[in-house]
Design goal:
Layout lengths: L1 E7 L12 H10 L4 E6 L8 H12 L5 E6 L7 H11 L4 E4 L1 H4 L6 H13 L3 E4 L19 H10 L5 E4 L3 H5 L7 E4 L8 H6 L7 E2 L9 H9 L5 H16 L4
Parallel strand pairs: 1-2, 2-3, 3-4, 4-5, 5-6, 6-7, 7-8
């Protein structure tokens, strides 16, 4: 499997067992995951994402199968220079946005410019709906999820962009109308036979395997794929085929 939703680092409100690259890679492999797109955990909260992104990418570049995803905060005046610099120095596979943590809307002018830059750099745009389940957030740091409708509108406004909504709940995902360039991971989607239920609302080509490791249990996400009551071709697409195409990965 290819996991499109993994983070590396520390988080002030949880203790993770895997906060270094090699133990993380071993853990993912034990769950049947051969490649993972990895973003820095600390970059969500630190004023300058570059500091922890660089530390994260220096770790994972020495570990086969871990692939870098750049956190971009378009509120910062230096975001464009920073993104182009990281794209030159590392083989970025995508960028990740946190509108709710960094306090901007997906219809803001600088996000429009960011989308154009991502298209030029051929980088998919991941938008994190949430990082944690809202029910488990620290009481003094309640961060509401990003609207899936806003993400869908963003994707529609930029048809050449490849947009992935991460960490959407099942009911949020199925409420969004199908769009050619909009994809969803399955990390927070929970219902009976999750993949079968999701594919009743959208084709398998719009779904990606994501675990939200280490915030969620990796094996639980893997079992959604392993036990899915869907056709083998659909299971393969969700497990890794879609990720190979979307992120231009080697098989």
């Amino acid at each position: 499997m290819i996991d499109v939703n993994v983070s590396l680092g520390r988080w002030p409100f949880q203790r993770f067992l895997f906060d270094a690259a090699r133990p993380l890679a071993r853990h993912l492999k034990s769950c049947g995951i051969r490649k993972a797109l990895v973003a820095s955990t600390e970059s969500v909260l630190y004023p300058d994402p570059d500091v922890y992104d660089e530390a994260c990418f220096e770790q994972i570049r020495a570990v086969p199968g871990l692939l870098p995803v750049k956190t971009v905060n378009p509120v910062l005046a230096t975001w464009r220079t920073s993104l182009c610099d990281f794209a030159d120095r590392y083989e970025l596979k995508a960028i990740r946005l946190y509108p709710n943590y960094h306090r901007y809307g997906l219809d803001d002018p600088m996000v429009n410019e960011l989308a154009k830059t991502a298209i030029k750099l051929k980088l998919p745009v991941m938008v994190a709906v949430r990082v944690e389940d809202e029910r488990q957030q620290y009481p003094l740091m309640q961060v509401p999820g990003v609207s899936l409708a806003a993400i869908a509108k963003f994707a529609a406004a930029h048809p050449r962009a490849r947009v992935i909504a991460l960490n959407g709940y099942f009911h949020e995902i199925i409420a969004v109308e199908e769009q050619r360039n909009l994809y969803f991971d399955i990390a927070f989607a929970e219902t009976t036979d999750t993949l079968r239920a999701l594919t009743e609302y959208m084709p398998a080509r719009h779904l990606l395997f994501g675990s939200q490791t280490p915030f969620l249990t990796t094996k639980a996400a893997a079992m959604k794929v392993e036990l899915a009551n869907i056709r083998p071709a659909g299971r393969e697409r969700i497990a890794e085929g879609n990720a190979v195409s979307l992120f231009r990965l080697d098989r």
